[in-house]
Design brief:
Layout: E1 2-6, H1 13-22, E2 26-31, H2 38-42, E3 46-49, E4 66-69, H3 81-101, E5 106-109, H4 138-153, E6 165-167, E7 173-176, E8 185-188, H5 191-203, H6 211-221, H7 257-266, E9 271-278, E10 292-295, E11 298-309, E12 319-327, E13 335-338, E14 341-346
Parallel strand pairs: 1-2, 1-4, 2-3, 4-5
Antiparallel strand pairs: 6-7, 7-8, 9-12, 9-14, 10-11, 10-13, 11-12, 13-14
Helix pairs in contact: 3-4
Length: 358
């Protein structure tokens, strides 16, 4: 493999170059001052003199399989804001453009944790996390703009906040799901562009999965589906639509709004979706078509969805789970008879690993 690295003499770039060389990659390093890269050259790296703010070194990346863009400008006690934007934003635009011109297959951009909005300690930020909106620091501002530039170039611009939709150049749209959804993004494209988008996502490291995987993710998240948990007789609060942000109490009028609002502010529903954790023994599937849920010898609801959690080494896996619309007096922890099998009622979303027995 051949790599082209910008910022190869920097805090992040130098260890990256060393690691690539150790793995027998052919590495070209862009350096403004080649003398600072003599040790890397001695280890086998090819040094290319250049500056990310001044295009003209694109020929040096023509053979690269991947470009690592690690160049950046950080200055304590900022004295030259323009230089910071020239390197962090303009430099990123230049390197990205040259990589495209040379047909480089992959482009890895080194950003900074500062571009992301604060997240809870137990929920680390990822590439699709919301970026900062109110910015006062020039460095973070320059990195946020570069981050967004690369996201757009990747062809999958991510909405900055949950519940928002961005139009795509191909006529489709990218929607960012709300918290708790079984997916992060929903990308809609014209049928003619679907195969190309799927190929690009897989080339970038995504793993293709079928409808069964999405259904399992949906059930694990406790996310209702039309035709399963939701029909023309379902009250929104019964299907957790209130909890997952599926109901607005500030927008205009709609049929049934008074009933829904009264339940939200003053009352409760008599049944609700709960999770079902089936005993792993025996491993047979719950009875197909048998949807009744009984508790203390009386009918208390119906099973709406079923899925099998594959054995992956995670405690609690290797069993059937389900969703059921059951009466509210059947509390989590209760053992019921559902679809012909014993099952424990649990809160949603499902929590894995599971230490307690079903």
């Amino acid at each position: 493999m051949q790599a082209f690295v910008t910022g190869g003499t920097g805090l992040i770039g130098r260890p990256l170059v060393e690691a690539l060389i150790q793995r027998n990659w052919e590495v070209a390093v862009l350096a403004r001052e080649p003398t600072r890269a003599k040790d890397l050259e001695a280890r086998g790296a090819r040094i290319v003199q250049g500056d990310v703010t001044r295009p003209g070194f694109e020929g040096a990346m023509s053979r690269a399989d991947i470009v690592f863009h690690a160049a950046g400008w950080l200055e304590l006690g900022i004295r030259d804001v323009q230089r910071m934007f020239d390197v962090n934003l303009l430099g990123t635009r230049n390197v990205l453009s040259m990589a495209r011109q040379q047909g480089v297959g992959r482009f890895v951009f080194t950003s900074t944790a500062g571009v992301f909005a604060p997240t809870p300690k137990d929920r680390p930020a990822t590439e699709s996390s919301p970026v900062q909106v109110a910015l006062s620091d020039p460095y973070v501002t320059s990195k946020v703009q570069a981050h967004q530039l690369v996201a757009v170039a990747a062809g999958l611009e991510v909405p900055p906040t949950a519940g928002h939709v961005l139009p795509r150049p191909d006529g489709g749209e990218t929607a960012r799901a709300t918290e708790g959804a079984p997916f992060v993004l929903q990308v809609t494209v014209p049928a003619a562009a679907a195969a190309l988008l799927a190929a690009r996502l897989e080339a970038a490291g995504a793993v293709a999965a079928g409808p069964a995987t999405l259904e399992l993710s949906r059930i694990l998240a406790g996310w209702p589906r039309l035709g399963a948990e939701v029909d023309d007789r379902t009250i929104p609060q019964e299907a957790r639509l209130d909890q997952i942000g599926g109901v607005s109490y500030t927008k205009g009028c709609y049929t049934g709004q008074e009933t829904v609002a009264r339940l939200h502010f003053r009352g409760h529903v008599n049944r609700q979706i709960r999770g079902l954790l089936f005993d792993p023994e025996p491993p047979a599937a719950p009875a197909d078509g048998w949807s009744v849920v009984t508790y203390v010898d009386r009918d208390v609801g119906r099973v709406t969805s079923l899925a099998f959690v594959p054995e992956t080494g995670v405690a609690g896996a290797g069993r059937w789970i389900g969703l059921a619309l059951i009466r509210r007096e059947v509390e989590p922890g209760s053992v019921v008879r559902a679809a012909g099998r014993d099952a424990r009622v649990v809160d949603l979303p499902f929590a894995f690993p599971i230490a307690a027995p079903a």
